[in-house]
């Protein structure tokens, strides 16, 4: 039978269902394809709006579970603790949420603006303490609090110290090594506890090796100090296999000079991590690399508008068939038997017959896919649709019985579109590391743009392009650019600095010039520490593209600071600048489409101040899949000399 005759006969047999599907838009009816014009439509589908073009990937949270109770050990005879009157030191873990600070709220607001979606909807947010957050390729925990208490022989407290812990990891889609970033901040100190030593160690279970289990070594912390570094892991699954494991953590807390052998606090990741070398199938043209995921987070495979009629047909199937495969119900990957399932659906008891006069290079598109265990239904049981690009949308015509309870669709699709959809599906299995018998969701959008981290999608007013991203420096007016010297006059001081950083950075420039407060800083130094060095601290550092010259506008990016203190040392701005630099330039799990949202805010005493008391720094990774997680949380770096905690330069 000629294809045209078949098409005509089917139209006479049943009234066709016509709809125009413009991906992502609820549409109105349009004229049917010309060959079907003799049969007027009786029902018009009101196609539901497609999913947003760039929604975040699925995220799950779990409460942070800590070891209950207080754990005490005697203080050593002759130790500093004993001399302070303490006979025992006690440690308590908790994960109690706290209200965000103003700076944290400011960061969340800035990220929300950049992402055009509330930051907490898809992130391990610093405003969600006491929570583990997971996405397919990352995990983090915030708000773990460790309370260290010294007690005398009567059980009375003689001093306390409080530490807060954050860890965050990006998992590799095409590798089996990764880093987990760790930040510990001393947020409180009372009485005899003026400083603490915090030693962090990580480990992982069978199938994984902690190749670097200490993020830092040594160094006492005082209130307000933070320690930042990373631990590293590796896994080596054999070809065709997978391995699953968990990560665990220990924190040793002690008074400076004390020897501690047992961990003060310990906790574990509540979800398993999977590394595998098992994505490939018999039809793979290449050899997908091994990689790692959080397997309990269901993967989402994406298909975009470049698949043309195939994408339209498969979205129609999701929205009109009762099962809603890939949306209402997950699909299940099948690595073998693809040809057999294709034959059953495109052949079977009622073989698919191409319509080249209607669809150029017509081919049989099947949904559910033959590469899933849900595919392979006999073609006689499927709805059959014809798709036509009308120039303003797609006409979707159903042939035969318009029964929404049918389990599958056969679509008349140009061969090129069919192949494009198959390639996107195969690439999606690799990108999301979908294994045999693993369930996944299918997201079909009209977007063909490359997905990027949220802040890379915008260019805020007042910002300037910098590498793949942008930098914005703001200022505040001051009545006098120096408070202690003459002559002087009005000017501006550096205020909040924000950078959206991609993989490619612009070169920065060295600091120079008679910046606001510079003469005040020189006079203070000459009076209290004549031999100490001063610096013009970059808010956005030189190594990340921050400027510092007059001609390039860099004066708005500089504040006076101690060279050894806020600028360099441990901890200092440089500690966290290096963490950001290493992530962007060296971490292969930070992709070209990811972004680092980096922000530094000077803390001034009052409206007349020309030199800050310190700065608050934050950095958050914004991934191309819409998720985000902190590289380091809000940390405060005081503008004090060296590691003395004294001689604050701020005025």
From TrEMBL:
Domain Type VII secretion system protein EssD-like: 518-621
UniProt keyword Nuclease, yes or no: yes
Record region (Disordered): 50-84
Molecular function terms from GO: endonuclease activity
Highest rank taxon of the organism: Bacteria
Keywords of the record: Endonuclease, Hydrolase, Nuclease, Signal
Pfam families per record: Endonuclea_NS_2
Name this polypeptide is given: DNA/RNA non-specific endonuclease
Species annotation: Streptomyces lienomycini
Lineage: Bacteria, Bacillati, Actinomycetota, Actinomycetes, Kitasatosporales
């Amino acid at each position: 039978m000629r294809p045209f005759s078949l098409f005509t006969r089917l139209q006479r047999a049943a009234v066709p269902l016509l709809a125009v599907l413009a991906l992502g838009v609820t549409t109105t009816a349009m004229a049917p394809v010309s060959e079907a014009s003799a049969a007027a439509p009786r029902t018009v589908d009101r196609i539901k709006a497609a999913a947003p073009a760039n929604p975040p990937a699925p995220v799950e949270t779990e409460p942070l579970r800590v070891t209950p109770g207080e754990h005490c050990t005697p203080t050593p005879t002759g130790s500093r603790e004993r001399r302070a009157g303490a006979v025992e030191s006690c440690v308590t873990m908790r994960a109690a949420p706290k209200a965000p600070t103003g700076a944290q709220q400011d960061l969340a607001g800035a990220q929300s603006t950049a992402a055009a979606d509330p930051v907490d909807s898809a992130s391990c947010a610093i405003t969600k303490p006491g929570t583990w957050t997971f996405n397919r390729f990352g995990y983090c925990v915030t708000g773990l609090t460790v309370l260290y208490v010294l007690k005398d022989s009567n059980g009375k407290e003689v001093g306390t110290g409080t530490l807060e812990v954050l860890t965050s990891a990006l998992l590799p889609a095409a590798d089996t090594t990764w880093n987990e970033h760790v930040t510990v901040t001393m947020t409180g100190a009372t009485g005899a506890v003026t400083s603490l030593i915090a030693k962090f160690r990580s480990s992982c279970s069978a199938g994984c090796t902690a190749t670097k289990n200490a993020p830092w070594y040594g160094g006492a912390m005082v209130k307000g100090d933070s320690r930042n570094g990373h631990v590293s892991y590796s896994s080596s699954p054999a070809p065709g296999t997978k391995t699953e494991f968990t990560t665990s953590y220990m924190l040793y807390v002690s008074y400076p000079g004390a020897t501690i052998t047992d961990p003060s606090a310990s906790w574990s990741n509540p979800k398993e991590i999977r590394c595998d070398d098992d994505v490939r199938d018999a039809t793979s043209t290449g050899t997908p690399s091994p990689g790692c995921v959080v397997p309990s987070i269901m993967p989402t495979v994406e298909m975009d508008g470049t698949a043309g009629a195939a994408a339209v047909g498969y979205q129609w199937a999701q929205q009109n068939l009762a099962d809603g495969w890939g949306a209402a119900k997950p699909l299940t990957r099948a690595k073998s038997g693809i040809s057999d399932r294709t034959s059953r659906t495109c052949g079977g008891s009622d073989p698919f017959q191409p319509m080249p006069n209607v669809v150029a290079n017509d081919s049989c598109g099947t949904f559910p896919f033959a590469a899933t265990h849900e595919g392979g239904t006999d073609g006689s049981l499927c709805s059959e649709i014809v798709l036509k690009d009308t120039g303003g949308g797609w006409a979707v015509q159903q042939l035969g019985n318009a029964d929404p309870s049918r389990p599958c669709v056969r679509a008349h699709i140009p061969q090129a579109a069919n192949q494009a959809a198959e390639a996107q599906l195969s690439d999606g299995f690799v990108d999301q590391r979908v294994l045999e018998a693993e369930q996944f969701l299918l997201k079909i959008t009209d977007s063909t743009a490359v997905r990027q981290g949220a802040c890379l999608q915008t260019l805020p007013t007042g910002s300037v392009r910098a590498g793949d991203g942008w930098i914005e420096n703001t200022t505040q007016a001051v009545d006098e650019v120096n408070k202690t010297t003459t002559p002087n006059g009005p000017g501006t001081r550096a205020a909040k600095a924000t950078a959206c950083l991609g993989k490619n950075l612009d070169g920065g420039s060295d600091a120079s010039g008679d910046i606001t407060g510079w003469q005040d800083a020189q006079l203070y130094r000459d009076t209290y520490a004549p031999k100490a060095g001063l610096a013009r601290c970059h808010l956005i550092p030189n190594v990340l593209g921050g400027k510092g010259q007059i001609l390039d506008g860099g004066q708005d990016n500089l504040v006076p600071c101690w060279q050894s203190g806020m600028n360099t040392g441990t901890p200092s701005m440089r500690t966290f600048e290096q963490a950001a630099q290493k992530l962007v330039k060296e971490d292969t799990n930070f992709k070209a489409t990811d972004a680092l949202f980096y922000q530094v805010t000077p803390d001034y005493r009052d409206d007349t101040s020309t030199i800050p008391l310190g700065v608050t720094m934050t950095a958050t990774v914004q991934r191309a899949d819409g998720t985000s997680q902190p590289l380091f949380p809000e940390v405060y770096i005081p503008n004090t000399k060296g590691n003395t905690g004294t001689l604050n330069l701020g005025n």
